[in-house]
Amino acid sequence: MAESWTAGAQRRAWLSAALLSVALLIAPFLVWLLLPRPVPVMPARRELAPAPLAPAQPEHAAPREVEAEPPPPPPPPPPPRETTAASAGPVRGVVVDPEGRPVAGATVRCSDEPGLSASADAEGRFELPPEADGCTATAAQPPFGDAQPTRVAAGGENVLHLIGTGSIAGEVVDPSGRPVEAYLLAIESFLPVGSGAHAGVNGRARKVSDPSGAFQLDELAPGRYVLTVSAAGRPPARSAPIDVEAGRAARFVRIVLPQGATLRGRVVDAESRAPVVEAQVELDSATSSGANAISLALTDANGDYELQGVPASGPFSVRVRHEQYMAKIVPGLDARGASSLRADIEIRLLGDGGSREELTGIGAMLSLSPSGVTIAGIIEGGPAALAGLAQGDVIVRIDGEPAADLPLADCIQRLRGRAGTRVTVGVDRGGHILDVTMRRDVVVH
Fold first, then answer.
1. Mean pLDDT across 315-319
2. Positive/negative CA dihedral, 10, 14, 19, 21
3. Does 2.40.50.100 match the CATH number of domain 364-444?
């Protein structure tokens, strides 16, 4: 019985193990059947850089080391002017008048190289150095107008044509319109057409005597003119600006000569108060051309003088001279429309210091240049020097009035004045405008 029970138990154990094994094999299959199927997953595309991206870098930070290229050198400056193959030789040519005739003595210069110049010979021919090859040249010879700028070249036939002349015709009358028969006529100022300066044109004075008061000036270079007229007993008067064109006459110019006033006074020694005999009293800087028909006055035994024909209105100056005394300029005189005025003048004996003249103003000497009214000199220790003005400064305004609208003589009179009075001057220095206020003073030099 025991053996039979043991064999039955062994069979039961093997059967249980077999059933358990089958269950373990069937269970995953049943789970697979009962659970929902997952969506098929496509294989991921292979990326070149699966790692997280690094921060962006500037464009110039290249992944490889390179040496920065230096910036290209600046291009060479262009030559100042064109040159020709024959630049080894001089530049030759001829200057001719409007009719094509050679003009002797004309001045030829390169406008872009002012240091290169020459003079035409008796046949109008000129020769510039080789450095002038390719420059822009012009020629000047009064009374003609300047030649038009022309590019010249070595080895070429260079011809510079001067511009033709014009003329001015007109009359001189008194305030009532009656002709003034005898007077002195001069060119007060001249602004040429072009860049040339015509030295010697200003101040071309001549005596005119005509019953109708008529005058005519011929062979005038093209440009803008201002004329000055003066007659005995009448102060100098100026014309309005006159434009002269080549080959044409500017006609119907009328200049009115006003009646003058009389200046009276006495000249005495500044120390002793004794009268100075035979001192000369005359208008000073009434015109820039020097065309002044007003005769000077001499003091008598009492030192008295009488100068006829001074301006009846507006400031003017007189100069007093004597061989034993310093010359003295008395500024700021004004008859204010009256027929006469008085000015007593003290002058000082010449000393050992070398000073020859005494004046009251700013202590600057003026001249007319192509740039305008220019300071030609400064008196040491004068108001202009103390204010910092310098030779070469161009005066652009005086007390607010444009200097370009004033003749040189008027600029001089406005800068002069009584000691202690003020004047404001605007000057152009290298393109910068400076306004300077000065107190006029007595200047001895």
1. 95
2. positive
3. no
